[in-house]
Amino acid sequence: MSITRIIIMIFVFLSVFGGGTYYIARRLYKWMCLLFPNMNSRHAMVIYTGIFVFLALSVILGFLRLPFGIRWIMHSISSYWIGIFMYLVILFVIADIFIIPLKITNILQGSLLTSVRLYSGLAVVILTTGLVCCGIINANFIKTVNYEIQLNDVSLNNLKIVLISDTHLGDTNSEKNLEKIVKAINDQNADIVCIAGDIFLDDYNIIRNPERAKNLFRSIKSTYGVYACLGNHDGGNTLNQMMAFLEESNIKLLKDEYVIIDDRFALFGRLDPHPIGGTGELKRSDISAAISSVGENFAVIVMDHNPANIKEYGQSVDLILSGHTHKGQMFPGSLFTNAMFTAAYGHYQKDSSSPHVIVTSGSSTWRPPIRIGSNNEIAVIVVR
């Protein structure tokens, strides 16, 4: 990624986030002045402004290489704030869409306008609090989603695959969720476990307890073992540490390469085309020749983190396993992922001669530890 593009992305992010923060702060301040007249005092204004400046800065500080403890606190605060921020913006905008035209046309005036502003602000605060609290609770559960697919290769009948993705180790609550994820996997007595990328969160050093995480991964039980590919968050300056972590966790990483499993099927693992921070000398390559070399002797299963890449595969591939989308994670995010991806979530097959595609919503969250309209999950795929 070029420096120019990075600068533009940072500028757009700061503009949107800064503008949104100002909008929320202004709307909340006006509402609280109606609720608490003393909010007009100078001291209250200073404290109020300081809180919002701190919340805005926490998002930036969470990305900087600060001492671990400070960075973790900033990351956690900013993660919750991003979720709250999103719903405050959406709900205040909805409220303004109704109020502003009525104000301009003088339908709402005087005490009636004051009352509408007071109660609409109260509704926004209550709805945001309720949504975020429900989303935080929901993000603490791991759901098991089941799929049955039919492949032409009868030798794969009753093969049970457990698919997970987007564990995002180092993110808020990710390591706490890992124990639940492993338990859910082991409850399935799987033949093989596939991790479709984004195991990490850009930087290995933000994992709080890597040894515990390794032990949990090593405790996964399956007939043929645990295999993984790299996602867009599995890169950067600590990539070598990430790969060493996977090796020590008994996770077999496939980097645009494949293995033959028990003379039954070929399993490919892809490199993500856009890793954050890059992956050094590791670059995504064309594996069509490798897929063709497998021939018709084995079914072909591909782990490719981003489902946008499914267009690269033809009839030689039987099953594609992906993640990345999180199913939008927080509604209305799913509206955007559905618009962006042909296969945004669940099972997809273009036609009877095309590969089956399974896209999981991920086993953990990215940044806000909140799930609304989606779930942390493991996907269990049984071949019939």
Structure description:
This protein has helices spanning 3-35, 42-61, 68-104, 110-138, 174-186, 210-218, 239-248, 288-294, 333-340, and strands at residues 142-149, 160-164, 192-196, 226-229, 251-253, 257-261, 265-269, 299-303, 319-322, 346-348, 356-359, 376-383. It has two domains: 3-137, no CATH class; 143-383, Metallo-dependent phosphatases (Purple Acid Phosphatase, chain A, domain 2), CATH 3.60.21.10. It has 384 residues and is α/β, with parallel strands linked by helices. It starts with a helix and ends with a strand. It is built from nine helices and twelve strands. The strands form two sheets. A six-stranded mixed β-sheet has the order 1-12-2-3-4-5. Strands 6-7-8-9-11-10 form a six-stranded mixed β-sheet, covered by helices on one side.
And the CATH topology of the largest domain? Purple Acid Phosphatase, chain A, domain 2
Biggest sheet overview: 6 strands, mixed
Gap between N and C termini:
43 Å
Give the fraction of residues assigned to helices: 40-55%
What strand order characterises the main sheet? 1-12-2-3-4-5
- The domain count comes to 2
Beta-strand segment tally: 12
| Secondary-structure element order, N to C | HHHHEEHEHEHEEEHEEHEEE
Poorly predicted runs of 5 or more residues: none
The residue-averaged pLDDT reads 92
Radius of gyration: 24 Å
Q: Please, what is the CATH homologous superfamily of the largest domain?
A: Metallo-dependent phosphatases
Number of helices: 9
Text of the CATH class of the largest domain: Alpha Beta
Q: What is the second-level CATH architecture of the largest domain?
A: 4-Layer Sandwich
Beta content comes to 15-25%
> Structural class, from helix and strand content?
alpha/beta
Question: Which overall shape is indicated by the principal axes computed on the Cα atoms?
Answer: elongated
- Looking at the chains present, what oligomeric state does this protein adopt? single chain
